[in-house]
Design a protein that fits this description.
Layout lengths: L1 H24 L5 E9 L2 E11 L2 E11 L5 H17 L4 E9 L13 E6 L1 H4 L3 H4 L17
Parallel strand pairs: 3-4
Antiparallel strand pairs: 1-2, 2-3, 4-5
């Protein structure tokens, strides 16, 4: 029974990645939700994949607040997603986390619910042993254009 579930999960991942690849190839595709990429043994789903120039913008929606102390874990998660998509041949030109805003109040519009934290894609594709000396200090917001 467990082997059957594992085989089914692998097949769904393979099929989802094939569907995503076909949709990415269509020039009219602007946004995909739950886009899937597979490269070798790696599978990743991007919450939102949005066309960005000649490449794609990966957006990961998280239920953490923008001032979370767990930013490193969230950055590692999006770095993995970007790595898998790039290995699958998808040009990722931008990556961002959408995190809950503490300034959101009841009655505010949905545009105030999230804060976007842009991620330096090139930095997070470095192997961990090369980036450990480059982590920003705790509490640093990574949303300046220089970090994209």
């Amino acid at each position: 029974m467990q082997q059957g579930q594992e085989v089914g999960a692998l097949a769904r991942g393979e099929t989802a990645a094939e569907i995503t690849a076909a949709l990415l190839a269509e020039t009219g595709t602007q946004v995909l939700f739950e886009a899937t990429a597979k490269s070798g043994p790696f599978i990743a789903k991007a919450d939102i994949l949005q066309r960005h120039g000649s490449g794609w913008h990966v957006l990961e929606v998280k239920s953490s607040f923008a001032d979370t102390g767990k930013l490193k874990d969230l950055l590692d998660d999006i770095a993995y997603t970007v790595m898998v998509f790039r290995r699958a041949g998808v040009l990722i030109s931008k990556a961002s986390l959408l995190l809950l805003s503490r300034s959101f109040r009841f009655g505010d519009g949905p545009d105030r619910l999230f804060e976007m934290v842009e991620v330096n894609v090139r930095f997070y594709l470095l192997p961990p042993h090369r980036r450990r000396h480059w982590y920003p200090p705790a509490g640093t917001v990574l949303n300046s254009p220089a970090n994209v």
